[in-house]
Amino acid sequence: MPDGFGTRRPVPPAVWFLTFLSVVPEVVLTGADLGLWGNPDWRVTAYQYGAFWAGLLQGWQPTYAGQPWLMFVTYGFLHGGLSHLALNMATLVAFGAVLVPRFGTASFLALYGLSQIGGGLAFTWLAPDGAPMVGASGAIFGLAGAFLATAAVQLKGRQRSIAPVLQSLGGLVLLNVVLWWAMAGGLAWQAHLGGAVAGALYTLAAPPRRA
């Protein structure tokens, strides 16, 4: 694994920025769900306008001009509740604290954005129906893919076995299988796969500035 993972590190501003963009919408929507402000229809409306709808790339009529392209951005900053948000943000902080110093802020944000796009594309190609998809996990699995790709490059550079990377990869696959089963098929594993592949490919094409 890359040196320093698991070591307590300060959270970079880029990670706080991405966290803020996800936390604010979910707090607003949760408050509306609970009747603290607005009305419960806000979440349905937010999903209608901001979720990822694969059908929009397959001939569906968009709600507004540009929605088929803007949803690649908006879906990653909407979540399905506070627990969904908390899990994704905790993982973002853990990976971001390690990867931002290695990639630099601009490259890290590019990695995050391209992984989110990769997650959306894979969901479009592999999802069995037209259900909407929300959440940052496609982008976050891209960070996991980047982390594992960095580890593999480091180990090969030191002429060491990449078995630990393969074991971690197997663990991620197993985790997705278990969550998919626990959620009765409601897990967007397609986005996870697409994000991870995009993150790994980005890392191999634009290696981190510090190994």
Structural notes for this entry:
The mean pLDDT is 89. The chain is mostly helical and 211 residues long. It is built from eight helices and no strands. It is globular. It has one domain (13-205): Up-down Bundle (Rhomboid-like fold), CATH 1.20.1540.
How do the helices and strands line up, and which of them pair or pack?
Blueprint: H1 13-33, H2 41-50, H3 67-74, H4 82-103, H5 105-126, H6 137-157, H7 163-182, H8 189-205
Helix pairs in contact: 1-2, 1-4, 4-5, 4-6, 5-6, 5-8, 6-8
Question: How would you summarize this macromolecular structure in one to three sentences?
Answer:
By secondary structure, the protein is an all-alpha fold. The chain has one domain (13-205): Rhomboid-like fold (Up-down Bundle), CATH 1.20.1540. It is built from eight helices and no strands.
Determine the fraction of residues in helical runs and give it as a percent range: 55-70%
**Structural class label:** mainly alpha
The topology string of helices and strands comes to HHHHHHHH
What is the annotated CATH architecture? Up-down Bundle
Query: What is the first-to-last residue Cα distance?
Result: 11 Å
Q: What gross morphology would you assign?
A: globular
- Tell me the number of strands: 0
Unreliable spans are: none
Number of helices: 8
> Sheet with the most strands?
none
CATH fold topology: Rhomboid-like fold
Strand content: under 5%
Radius of gyration: 18 Å
- How many domains? The number is 1
- CATH level 4 superfamily: Rhomboid-like
CATH class: Mainly Alpha
What average pLDDT do the residues reach? 89
